[in-house]
Design brief:
Chain A is an alpha+beta fold. The first copy, chain A, has ten helices and seven strands. A five-stranded mixed β-sheet of chain A has the order 5-4-3-6-7. In chain A, strand 3 (about 135-140) and strand 4 (about 145-150) form a beta hairpin. Chain A binds a DNA duplex through helix 3 and helix 4.
DNA sequence: CGGAATCCTCTTCGATACTG
DNA sequence: CAGTATCGAAGAGGATTCCG
């Protein structure tokens, strides 16, 4: 059970030794939005197979990238979550995700989950424009809801609807949102379009645009 | 010969479909320093196996990341080089390389090549401090020589010694240089140290430090 | 039912040998 | 030198079983 290694004194080779195997980075992606249970991870990655998921999680745990946490009763379930190192990794793989998003082509029947867009959304975040902003933006895409909270110059995504009424609510489709995320489409180009609809005060919308770099 | 795909409408999954297989990103790394012949690539990646190298190159070529070029006579050899897309990829994988470099531990007998440090070196480059700088820095590490040229606010690495006398020449060992590259060690900490020696005018050295973010 | 370990088949990898 | 061909070994995928 000794893991294969490139055995090179090189940062990239080392990173690939740790997280270069099949499924590993996608696991980190899914956990980067928030803790997940084993069965949620399994369901969220069609094709992985239970044994492989268990093995990958064990590796990530051994490497200090993922940690198992137990939610207090009455929930009393155990979840997997990223460690601090894991969150640094999630940040480091962002440019790769953006590179891929620019070459993604048409949807073409591929699986889609709204929380994957957290990645591209995070990549457009401009901390320098977020000073003093404390907003919640809700996103409806393809029947799913996610929201992001901006506060203290940071951005944080979550699955599901916002706990309190959102400052801005955006409804759109995966293709449009992805194009916005990678910058091949500007938000003003689709504002009056049927591909996208927006709710919220003009002020909040202006902040949203600024913070997300449009 | 149909390639396996995650089949997800997600930038990261798409990137991994394209370059997530074993050896692929290391190939891109090696080509990011300059064109290479088939046999050089093979020799530079111990363990890859000739068949796999040929297949990966074919895939990368089909995806527009790598291109085959024929050098004019009398050299008359064919080499592989990155396309524009390939160079964008090389840039996008940099943060991952830095993340890995911070977790690389001790050398411990692992293979090392000086040109791999081009990656971490590039990651420390500060274009904003490079205005008007037109320098060449030569690096001697572990018996190998590489050099970087800074001009027009850009940085470019090459294997081998600098064509003209370098403005700054640095001699050090892999561990020290990697630590400098990821920022766990500051250059002034080792300047008077036996781990590192420097040649060049004080002015050139000051520019070198500024441009490489020390 | 969540969280795996096991078994079996198929694909991919790694190493060497071979060819234009 | 630039690749193909071949083949045993390792890894992946899917279903089933086990355990609390």
């Amino acid at each position: 059970m000794t893991r294969r290694s490139y055995d090179q004194f090189c940062g990239l080779a080392r990173a690939l030794d740790l997280v270069g195997e099949r499924w590993t980075l996608l696991l980190v992606r899914d956990l980067s939005v928030g803790p997940q249970r084993y069965s949620d991870l399994l369901a969220g990655l069609p094709g992985i197979g239970s044994g492989l998921l268990a093995e990958r999680l064990k590796q990530l745990e051994a490497d200090g990238i993922v940690r198992k946490a137990h939610l207090p009763p009455p929930a009393a379930v155990s979840v997997y979550e990223l460690t601090e190192e894991g969150h640094e990794l999630a940040l480091a793989m962002l440019p790769l995700a953006v590179w891929g998003a620019r070459r993604i082509g048409d949807r073409d029947g591929r699986l889609f989950r709204a929380d994957w867009l957290m990645l591209t959304l995070r990549s457009r975040f401009r901390p320098d424009r977020a000073e003093g902003v404390r907003d919640t933006y809700e996103l409806h895409v393809d029947g799913e809801v996610v929201h992001v909270r901006v506060h203290d110059g940071r951005i944080e995504g979550q699955r599901g609807p916002a706990p309190a009424p959102a400052d801005v609510t955006i409804r759109t489709d995966p293709e449009t949102l992805l194009a916005l995320g990678v910058g091949t489409l500007a938000l003003d180009e689709v504002l009056g379009d049927r591909r996208l609809s927006v709710e919220g005060s003009d002020e909040a919308l202006a902040r949203c645009l600024a913070v997300l770099g449009s």
